[in-house]
Design a protein that fits this description.
The structure holds two protein chains of two kinds. By secondary structure, chain A is an alpha+beta fold. Chain A is built from eleven helices and 14 strands. In chain A, the strands form four sheets. In chain A, strands 4-5-10-6-7 form a five-stranded antiparallel beta sheet. In chain A, strands 11-12-13-14 form a four-stranded antiparallel beta sheet. A three-stranded parallel beta sheet of chain A has the order 1-3-2, covered by helices on one side. Chain B is of the alpha+beta class. In chain B, strands 2-1-5-3-4 form a five-stranded mixed beta sheet, with helices on both faces. In chain B, a hairpin with a 2-residue loop joins strand 1 and strand 2. Chain B is globular. The chains are: A alpha+beta, B alpha+beta.
Chain lengths: 299, 154
């Protein structure tokens, strides 16, 4: 653990619009850090790993702290929505179970009340719990600059440990998750070294939908964290399951494939073995949730 | 450059001029002078600096004071009512849920945030509520009992 000191001096800018934040970013490239919940950034600054000249606060920008229906696109989550708000939202628990569960796992209650979903993604730690859940849910990110905005699927966002495709003047503003179709369900399972506060050792999220009337897996996505340089999808495991009638045996096979797709560095053998266990649990729970989902076909 | 910041702490409005680099914890302890809130790890892991802001327990070491502008904050000093201990504080004393005392303010704040919103928490909810508060004396069992006794009384 690195020695901690008081925060270094910086110029604080409270942005009141996304445009204003982007302008500060673009006029001071490389010297600015964006402050969302602060639970990662302030620690990195106290450790002097990051010493920005400017810190932009986003809290005055309206709309970034809301969860809203966005028509056909799905549910739009503002970058400043806290882990606590997602974990405790009945809508999230019901329809996006894996994400609610992942956000409930992050940090401690005192940290979840501050930390934001956008911050968790932009910090881009390999062990970011929200990432596998959002990968499984097919999340799309809205990235904005003064020049305009682009929509990027989350799986294209991470480029390495603690690095992303974000340009120096670009801001993550919204995360959109499409509604799962048909009889669907999702789940997140994880292991930690010891307790609640510890980093995730292996995290696996699964979201799947069933064909109406039987146990055929119509679509499935599996997200993993802490087992590769970035959070990843287990694409081969997904294709093993897609279009097939789900059985415990098939899920077992797919879990072993997912284990082969992981590329853990430390505790490699153990983590690889546990990927199989966590994926099996997550897919099985998602399956049972989908089967019990009374909404049936349609949305 | 200092900025004007208004904080309501335990019902008292403080109009201050604060450097952006100052955390809410530093301002509460060093500028306002309320030292009941403790500085432990200063990185959001230990829970000693827990205060209640907008009805929620937060780590005051991870908040810039300038970003707490206009907020309503309760610290351990605001828990007792005119010299009368809060039932939670009574319960901590009764159950011997204090040893060295360093974690106690944070524990009480986390527990208060819980019972303010949930009058009859389950034991699992109590444990979850204090999961972000470390007690290095290892007094967890008595702390959980103390918090549970408050719900039993009310």
């Amino acid at each position: 653990m690195t020695y901690i000191r008081r925060l270094p001096s910086f110029e604080y800018v409270s942005a009141s619009t996304v445009k204003e934040a982007c302008a500060v970013l673009s006029n001071n490239k490389g010297k600015v850090k964006i402050l969302a919940g602060g639970t990662d950034l302030l620690v990195q600054m106290k450790e002097r790993k990051v010493v920005p000249e400017y810190v932009i606060g986003l809290k005055q920008i309206s709309g970034l702290n809301k969860i809203e229906e966005n028509g056909k696109a799905g549910l739009r989550i503002g970058t400043l929505v806290t882990h606590h708000e997602i974990a405790r939202s009945p809508q999230m628990q019901e329809n996006f179970t894996c994400l609610a569960k992942a956000c409930e796992k992050i940090g401690t209650p005192q940290v979840r009340n501050l930390g934001t979903i956008g911050g968790n993604l932009c910090n881009a730690g390999p062990s970011a719990d929200s990432a596998p859940a959002l990968l499984a849910l097919g999340a799309v990110l809205t990235l904005q600059t003064g020049r305009g905005e682009r929509q990027v699927p989350l799986e294209k966002f991470f480029t390495g440990p603690f690095s992303t495709i974000l340009e120096e003047d670009e801001l993550l503003t919204f995360i959109t998750i499409p509604h799962l179709k048909g009889k669907s369900g999702s789940a997140y399972h994880y292991l930690t070294k010891r307790t609640a506060v510890d980093e995730t050792l292996v995290g696996a999220a699964a979201a799947l939908s069933l064909k109406a009337g039987d146990d055929v897996c119509e679509d499935v996505k599996i997200g993993l964290c802490s087992v590769a340089p970035t959070p990843i999808r287990a694409l081969k495991a997904e294709s093993k399951l897609k279009g097939k009638k789900l059985t415990d045996g098939l899920i077992e096979e797919a879990s072993r494939i997912a284990s082969g797709e992981s590329r853990p560095r430390s505790w490699a053998e153990y983590r690889r073995d546990m990927v199989a266990v966590m994926v099996k649990r997550a897919v099985t729970e998602a399956w049972h949730r989908a089967a019990a989902n009374k909404k049936g076909s349609g949305k | 450059m200092k900025r004007p910041v208004e904080l309501t702490v335990n019902g008292v409005l403080y109009k201050l001029e604060i450097e952006p680099r100052r955390t809410l914890l530093e301002v509460i302890r060093e500028i306002i002078g309320l030292t009941g809130t403790k500085r432990g790890c200063d990185r959001g892991n230990c829970g000693s600096c827990t205060v209640i802001m907008d009805q929620k327990p937060i780590a005051s070491c991870l908040v810039l004071a300038v970003e707490a502008h206009g907020k309503n904050i309760t610290t351990i000093e605001g828990v007792a009512d005119h010299g009368h201990l809060h039932p939670l504080q009574e319960a901590f004393l009764e159950h011997g849920a204090i040893q060295c005392g360093f974690c106690t303010p944070g524990m009480v704040m986390s527990a208060k945030a819980l019972i303010d919103n949930n009058q009859a928490p389950l034991e699992s909810e109590i444990k979850e509520a204090i999961s972000g508060n470390l007690c290095r004396c290892g007094g967890y069992a008595r702390i959980v009992k103390a918090i549970a006794s408050v719900k039993a009384k009310s």
